[in-house]
What we know:
Layout: E1 7-10, E2 19-24, H1 27-42, E3 46-51, H2 70-76, E4 79-82, H3 84-87, H4 97-113, E5 118-124, H5 126-130, H6 137-151, E6 157-164, H7 170-177, E7 182-185, E8 190-191, E9 195-201, E10 204-212, H8 217-225, E11 233-236, E12 240-243, H9 245-256, E13 264-267, H10 271-280, E14 288-290, H11 294-297
Parallel strand pairs: 1-7, 2-6, 2-7, 3-4, 3-5, 5-6, 10-11, 10-12, 11-13, 13-14
Antiparallel strand pairs: 8-9, 9-10
Helix pairs in contact: 4-6, 8-9
Amino acid sequence: METSWFAERSVSAVRPGDHGWFAYSSPEHRDRVIGTFLREGLESPEKVVYVTDVPAELLPGLGPEGPIDVEARVRSGQLRVIPRQEACLDRRGAFEPARMADTIAREVGAAFDQGFRAARVTTDYSWLLNGPGRSDLGRMLRCEHRVGDAVSPSTMAMAICQVDRHACPPAELNDLRDTHEVLVEVNPEFDDGILKIVRTFEPEGLRVEGELDAARHSVFAEQLAQVRPGGSVHLDLARLGFIDLGALHLLARHATRLPADAALVLDHLSPDVESVIDLVGWHRLPGLARGRRLAETEGIS
């Protein structure tokens, strides 16, 4: 069902009944979300179903050096890797939305019969959007509606539909997003109920929410130091309600450590935070730059 509102959930908070949407910006971004989704399922009494032509040992976040014995999970049936031909293509090799929905329903039913507590389902649709056999948007939307109808009423199925955000124009990306009620993101780097810090990947940086006061300077500085894009660092401050003067000076000190051609860019400044910076004076905070306003990026996820 189409909707104009979304529940935002970190990947570890995804739960049965969620038909989630995840548009990734880079392989690291994908691994941080989908890898966590897979590992948490395989480390619990849940079944994991991945529709892909990629071998099990090369799935995001998994690998021969990891803590999970992937081959053992495949042998036990806890991890099901289903090739696209079997899951969602017709005899001519064309994408068939109804077949994808039937595959998910069948695997979820099997998970229940096998005694699993829940079933986690995911697939990456990017190949349909930017490959030589590009599917039309209407067929993709029908697929997402069918998957949503199969997952949303369920008490044991949860799904994350993935797509490379560069695989199609922003308008099409938003149309696909709108067939989901849950937007999935990386787990927070820090969250104590007052300050929440979330890694962002395009642009690279952090999203900072809540209140940034003296008691949280050290944890914020630690997280900021771990972001090393090789250029400018962006801070999304749309949900930051308070920042003290010490934190502003912390930002200015960090900016001086960036490359000469880089800046610490403050995006989506809330009015309260912007007024504090204006009061101090941008000229007293070298290396900080005013970034994008919320209206410039609103609606693109």
